[in-house]
Amino acid sequence: MVEKYKKRYGSGLEALTYLGQNYFNVDRSLIPDLLRLLNSDDEFDYCVDLTAVHYPKREKQFDLVWVLYSFPRNERIRVKTQMKDGESIASVVSIWPTANWLEREVFDMFGIRFDGHPDMKRILLPDGWEGYPLRKDYDILQQDKKWVRINLGIESGQ
Fold this sequence. Notes:
This protein is of the alpha/beta class. 27% of the residues lie in helices and 28% in strands. A hairpin with a 7-residue loop joins strand 3 and strand 4. It has two domains: 123 residues, Beta Polymerase, domain 2 (2-Layer Sandwich), CATH 3.30.460.80; 33 residues, no CATH class. The chain is elongated and about 60 Å long.
């Protein structure tokens, strides 16, 4: 599988293993095509998880990570890419319906938008919430105090 994708994508794809866990580090432009092929050609039929990691000091501040599983192969793989703040990426809800809420959670917590998502809105926090709590530069105490004051009419005990 690694040879097939290295041949197809060349330097845009790096295959790595860390502590026995396989993953592809992929150029962002290749993500939609690679994920489609992993599903259709290699039977990764379940999107287990999708998450992000914020590195505020890097130019490409976000790592976006899909965790995929193949029931027929009993195999797991991670696909990782890097993104700049403000960039968006294609939704994979059409490939794995389970990605619907996962993409919404990443949007809600990190502010990463998924193009073509059927309902790109917050899933955990109220609509009026400002900012993205899992970013490392997020000031939760300031936001919490403001939201509590506006929506509950009291001063936060934080």
